[in-house]
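Students often ask what a 'structure token' actually looks like in practice. Rather than answer in the abstract, let us consider Stage II sporulation protein M, a protein of 331 residues. Its sequence is given first.
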Amino acid sequence: MDLDALAAARHDDWQRLDALARRRRLAGPETDELIERYQAGASDLSLVKSTAGSTALGDRLSISLARARLKFTGAPENPLRQLTRFAWVSLPAALYRLRWITLGVAVATFVIAGLYAWWIGGDPRALAALGSEGELEQLAEEGFVAYYSENPAASFAGMVWTNNAWIAAQCIAFGVLGVWVPWVILQNAQNLGVTAAVMFAYDEADTFFLYIAPHGLLELTCVFVAAAGGLRIFWAWVAPGPRPRGVALAEDARSLFTVAIGLVFFLFVAGLIEGFVTPQPWPWAVKIGIGVLALAAFLAYMLVLGGRARRAGATGDLVEFEAGATRVVAG
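Now compare that with the structural description of the same chain:
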């Protein structure tokens, strides 16, 4: 095959391919033309390589084809812009979708915890079943407070963070089973109610609330959100609506995996508060104020920013986030 003859015959076509590939945006007809010329150019390149191997002519055509291919597959976006989109669009939109289920989980948790506290606090036999008089008194008057300061703040914060992040991830991952999330909600509420009952029984109610409030406001809310995510995944499997069950499950799971990633950061903040703020000998107004501010910031992120993102059409799906890494060039 005569490469010079081929280059002369295809010169205008290749030039047009390169010109279209260099344009920042293309109209609909131009996009169709680019696809046609890309296919033709790919055939020419295959012919050149199979006949003459690696040549300068083939290399130039390869560059034009690669540039054209980016128009279809998209060029990688700046990682900082991807991270910004995730933080300000995808994650808050995904959290916003869970707002009502989160509220339901919170109400259920506090109702169950309240019932446990009422039952144990009103029944001396139930209280005695938790431990001896000395053990319970030691827990109420020393152990509960000592828990927050018996380890170095940094290691304690890290331990709390990893434990809570693991629980949140389990809620999302195993939510489809239908039983895991209710079990987590029950265990969480039971622990909260039993501890409250012991503290109340020994007149340490103020200590209980003062030590729980700084970090617990944000920490418990994150757990509620994770549980809500798991329940939503389960419901997508039970009642997929007009979507095929597999599609509904996959779509909601992708969206809620976004939540699992985001909760890692928020639980990290809660862990820092629990490790570095809760045990400090500061005025309680300051410590609880920090917890209230952390919760307020999270709720504003979830409801205000999330509502805005949802109204703009964001779904919170990871696929949507990943799609932001490519540029849409046809219009």
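One point worth highlighting: Residues 318-331 have pLDDT under 50 and may be disordered. Ask yourself how you might have guessed this from the sequence alone, and why that guess would often be unreliable.
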